[in-house]
Design goal:
single chain, about 190 residues, alpha/beta, Rossmann fold, 5 helices, about 25% strand
């Protein structure tokens, strides 16, 4: 099963996605972290995120690029955090093109969907601010939109998180078990 959980910055999408992962029965659980450490601010965010995940039963794997090479066991449950960061990593890697980045993202997500019993991908809603951006940012937005749109079409479950509340566009939270249905799905 594949799920896409997306929303704006600090909306509660990661907490919701983590609850979905925690509700996956029996399977070993992996948190595929995409942030590349670059500078003290990034290292601090990584430390904070690791502390928030501590004790939840997730093994963290670094997934900054090339998802198809992640060493994950078949039948596991994976939370990919997050597609916006992974897209930037792939697109702005030395020698990358929009086409090669999109191909790598598609191939990596396809690999994860085949490898994992459950794949939960955190996506980003960064498309509505109406600002005029330079070509590099517009290219990033086009690649991210393409991969998220394709993932949403293929996913069994799609939820948009707004102000900590899930708006389910496809599927049902019950797919993940009783702990994911009802009001308790809202982020604290």
């Amino acid at each position: 099963m594949t799920a896409l959980v997306y929303g704006g910055s600090a909306c509660g999408k990661s907490a919701f996605a983590e609850r979905l992962l925690a509700a996956c029965p029996g399977a070993p659980k992996y948190y595929a972290a995409c942030m590349e450490p670059s500078g003290e601010e990034a290292f601090e965010r990584i430390r904070r995120h690791r502390a928030l995940r501590a004790g939840k039963g997730f093994a963290t794997v670094e997934a900054q690029r090339s998802l198809a090479s992640l060493p994950l066991p078949p039948g596991c449950a994976v939370l990919l955090e997050c597609l916006g960061t992974l897209t930037a990593n792939e697109l702005f890697a030395p020698g990358a093109t929009p086409e090669s980045a999109l191909a790598s993202l598609r191939g990596g997500l396809s690999f994860l969907a085949r490898q994992a019993e459950t794949l939960i991908v955190v996506g980003n809603d960064v498309f509505a601010d109406g600002m005029d951006y330079g070509e590099g940012t517009r290219t990033y937005l086009r690649v991210l939109a393409a991969v998220q749109r394709e993932l949403a079409q293929e996913a069994d479950f799609v939820a948009e998180i707004v102000c900590g509340l899930p708006i389910v566009h496809k599927g049902a939270p019950e797919l993940f078990g009783p702990s994911c249905s009802g009001k308790e799905t809202a982020a604290p």
